[in-house]
């Protein structure tokens, strides 16, 4: 246990950093709470005085005074006149005993044999854990902190934490969603895609991936046949396979999925028609009509993922759902790519009967997405912040795409790409013999992050010459030098291979 005046040890308990996202006062409180709950401070041991601790930590005395007072109010500390601050003995009333710690497990359970699905054997997601510290992060699906609407998001969270608002979301809502959020999705997001739905035709999910998992759980089983774009969204493929479905890889060309290649006996067709994942080509009007006609004729259900659809040069294509007159299209949307991927908020638009079943299923999974987040996002939409954000992102991404295309044309002319009408990535095809896996590994060593394209293909002989470059998290000024660095690495890699 530290002595009151042993300031070196005390300061070791307080790891204060100016780079932390927390205030200095909050960091001090967190450190004291952790030390108390970890039994590093005895109830009989006085804490250093506010003056001494402030001097040791290099902070204002008032900061420590406020931190101590907050902990007194919370019952972690007690203030004794002329003696200082002590740990409240009630907090340490039942200290854990060393002998109470359970021994290390020595289990002989064969969990691999007991599992019913092999989730861990599905293709893993591409992880760039340190992308934010990388100089040239050409990664997809992350955000740019400089474009995040910090002030607007704080405003909405403050509003959601008002006393009257808390009463609206703090109770268990069962299988319901925040009515204001449903209203805003109905009035603000869907009409932008040409979709007009009733409230009972919308359900909120924990992102688009959660939406696909719920649909697969409810509608698919062993032997279900799903036609999917190839190349296509790898996680959707894995989700459907975990449900027992058989996947039919359907080719893609410059007009999107080749509808004539979709098997007539497929039960479902999964498509990304606004921006094909990963090539970014839109599904042509003729193919859209043919897809809907085939679905009606063959009794098929279409699952439409609105992949990157909010970011199509400020004038998004109409969703496939907007053309659906037979109720055969299930539309999956998300706000992750516009607001922040960490918020995990998406939605499904479908017939009221299906939405009712999804609500019943969701109730057994997690009842509903966190209601406080739903209310904050509903306020964000209602105040026009999302519309303004989409315009800002579309403008920024358009400028970045142009800069990327120019750099590629100048520095990597042997790589072919299709200029997308918006979105946050570009798909590239390299010259014959290129192995992008090796290129990605070499590039990562030089602070350049790229995404190999082989993971998008559903075949044993996966082509190795494709890659996807994201632009959502790389600054405009880093694009050209990043491509210059990548071009040099690609040249050296090919020279070694030759």
Q: What is the third-level CATH name, the topology of the largest domain?
A: Aspartate Aminotransferase, domain 2
How many domains would you count in the coordinates? 3
Report Rg.
27 Å
Shape estimate: globular
Tell how many strands the DSSP assignment holds.
16
CATH superfamily of the largest domain: Type I PLP-dependent aspartate aminotransferase-like (Major domain)
Q: Report the mean per-residue pLDDT as an integer.
A: 90
Percent in strands: 5-15%
CATH class membership of the largest domain: Alpha Beta
Strand order of the largest sheet: 4-11-10-9-8-5-6-7
Number of helices: 16
Overview in brief:
By secondary structure, the protein is an alpha/beta fold.
Structure description:
The chain has helices at 7-13, 24-37, 50-57, 61-74, 111-114, 150-160, 163-169, 179-189, 208-219, 234-242, 285-298, 352-365, 371-382, 385-411, 436-444, 476-497; strands at residues 77-80, 84-87, 136-137, 202-205, 225-230, 246-253, 256-257, 268-271, 301-305, 329-334, 346-349, 416-417, 425-429, 448-449, 451-452, 466-470. With 498 residues, the protein is of the alpha/beta class. The protein folds into three domains: 7-92, Orthogonal Bundle (Arc Repressor Mutant, subunit A), CATH 1.10.10; 128-146 and 388-496, Aspartate Aminotransferase, domain 1, CATH 3.90.1150; 150-385, Aspartate Aminotransferase, domain 2. An eight-stranded mixed sheet has the order 4-11-10-9-8-5-6-7, with helices on both faces. It has a four-stranded antiparallel sheet with strand order 12-13-16-15. A two-stranded antiparallel ribbon has the order 1-2.
């Amino acid at each position: 246990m530290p002595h009151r005046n042993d300031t070196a040890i005390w300061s070791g308990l307080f790891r204060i950093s100016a780079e932390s996202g927390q205030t200095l006062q909050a960091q001090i409180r967190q450190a004291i709470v952790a030390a108390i709950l970890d039994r590093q401070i005895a109830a009989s041991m006085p804490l250093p005085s506010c003056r001494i601790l402030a001097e040791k930590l290099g902070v204002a005395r008032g900061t420590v005074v406020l931190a101590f007072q907050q902990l007194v109010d919370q019952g972690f500390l007690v203030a004794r006149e002329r003696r200082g601050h002590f740990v409240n003995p009630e907090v340490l009333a039942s200290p854990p005993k060393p002998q109470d710690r359970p021994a290390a497990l020595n289990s002989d359970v064969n969990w691999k044999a007991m599992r019913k699905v092999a989730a861990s054997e599905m293709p893993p997601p591409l992880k760039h854990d340190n992308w934010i510290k990388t100089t040239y992060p050409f990664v997809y699906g992350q955000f740019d902190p400089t474009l995040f609407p910090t002030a607007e998001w704080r405003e909405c969270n403050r509003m959601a934490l008002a006393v009257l608002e808390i009463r609206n979301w703090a109770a268990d809502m069962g299988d319901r969603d925040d009515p204001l959020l449903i209203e805003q999705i109905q009035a603000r997001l869907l009409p932008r895609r040409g979709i007009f739905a009733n409230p009972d035709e919308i359900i909120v999910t924990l992102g688009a991936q959660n939406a696909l998992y719920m649909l697969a759980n409810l509608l698919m089983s062993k032997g279900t046949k799903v036609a999917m774009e190839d190349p296509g969204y790898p996680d959707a493929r894995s989700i459907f396979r975990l449900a027992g479905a058989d996947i039919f890889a359907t080719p893609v060309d410059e007009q999107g999925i080749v509808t004539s290649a979709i098997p007539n006996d497929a039960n479902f067709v999964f498509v990304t028609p606004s921006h094909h994942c990963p090539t970014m080509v839109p599904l042509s009007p003729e193919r859209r009509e043919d897809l809907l006609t085939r679905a009606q004729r063959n009794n098929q259900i279409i699952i439409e993922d609105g992949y990157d659809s909010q970011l199509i040069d400020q004038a998004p294509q109409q969703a496939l759902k907007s053309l659906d007159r037979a109720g055969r299209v299930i539309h999956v949307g998300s706000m992750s790519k516009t607001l922040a991927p960490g918020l995990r908020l998406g939605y499904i638009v479908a017939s009221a009967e299906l939405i009712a079943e999804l609500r019943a299923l969701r109730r057994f999974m997690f009842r509903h997405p966190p209601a406080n987040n739903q209310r904050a996002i509903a306020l964000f939409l209602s105040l026009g912040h999302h519309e303004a954000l989409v315009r800002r992102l579309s403008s920024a991404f358009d400028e970045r795409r142009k800069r990327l295309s120019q750099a590629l044309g100048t520095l990597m002319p042997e790589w072919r790409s299709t200029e997308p009408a918006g979105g946050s990535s570009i798909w590239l095809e390299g010259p014959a013999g290129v192995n992008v896996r090796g290129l990605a590994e070499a590039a990562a060593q030089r602070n350049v992050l790229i995404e190999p394209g082989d993971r998008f293909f559903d075949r044993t002989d996966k082509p190795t010459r494709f890659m996807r470059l994201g632009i959502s998290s790389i600054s405009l000024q880093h694009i050209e030098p990043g491509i210059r660095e990548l071009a040099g690495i690609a040249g050296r890699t090919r020279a070694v291979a030759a």
